[in-house]
Design goal:
By secondary structure, this protein is an alpha+beta fold. It has one domain (21-185): Glutaredoxin (3-Layer(aba) Sandwich). It is built from 5 helices and 10 strands; from the N terminus they run αβββββαβαβαβββα. The strands form 3 sheets. The chain has a 5-stranded mixed sheet with strand order 7-6-5-9-10. Strands 2-3-4 form a 3-stranded antiparallel sheet, with no helix packed on it. β3 and β4 (61-63) form a beta hairpin. The radius of gyration is 17 Å and the shape is globular. The N and C termini lie far apart (59 Å).
Length: 190
């Protein structure tokens, strides 16, 4: 039975039936990245709010505190998932168009080869912050991310506004972001 399910899964990917790849299997068996002397690794979901402090692909940390008050696109991807790595180029273009209006893009690479993922970002001239996270950490955090690629749109307070698994059309993304921008501008300042 297990072999049959696996063959159907592979057939689904080959035929393009499935847009997302689940976060289980060999990738989930990678060791946790945090060590006693290593970088801070924090990922939590509290009342539908997403908080994170993770090592960046290149150097330093990426923290949700940096994006408070902004509309933030959180994109979970891996280079081994062609759908996700292809979609990043379009998200980068979208971010360049809207970043001066308070829209941020954060990539979350679930790639087991972080060095390769960092080189991919550099090669494609992606300048948005990109955090590295192992799928095992993502699963342990009880995140609403069940497959790759996944896009979470966070409202300015860090609350998850929308979640998209697989491919998202630029028109739908733009509609969501413009709606959040309208809501943000109507919110009275206290």
């Amino acid at each position: 039975m297990r072999q049959r399910v696996w063959k159907i899964f592979i057939l689904g990917i080959t035929l393009g039936v499935m847009n997302t790849v689940p976060l289980w299997g060999e990738i989930a068996e990678l060791p946790l990245a945090q060590t006693e002397t290593g970088p801070t690794v924090s990922l939590s979901w509290d009342h539908n709010q997403f908080h994170f402090e993770l090592p960046a692909l290149t150097q330093g940390q990426v923290s949700s505190d940096r994006f408070v008050g902004d509309i933030t696109l959180c994109f979970f991807w891996a280079d081994w998932n062609k759908t996700g790595s292809d979609q990043l180029q379009g998200l980068n273009e979208f971010w360049l168009k809207y970043k001066l209006l308070g829209v941020q893009l954060v990539g979350f690479s679930v790639d087991p080869d972080m060095e390769h993922a960092a080189k991919l970002c550099e090669k494609n001239d992606w300048h948005f912050p990109c955090a590295r996270i192992y799928s095992r950490q993502l699963i342990a955090s009880a995140a609403p991310v069940k497959g790759l690629p996944t896009l979470l749109i966070l409202a300015p307070g860090g609350i998850v506004y929308r979640k998209y698994e697989g491919i998202i059309s630029p028109e739908v993304l733009e509609g969501d972001v413009l709606n959040l921008m309208r809501q943000k501008n109507q919110t009275p300042a206290f």
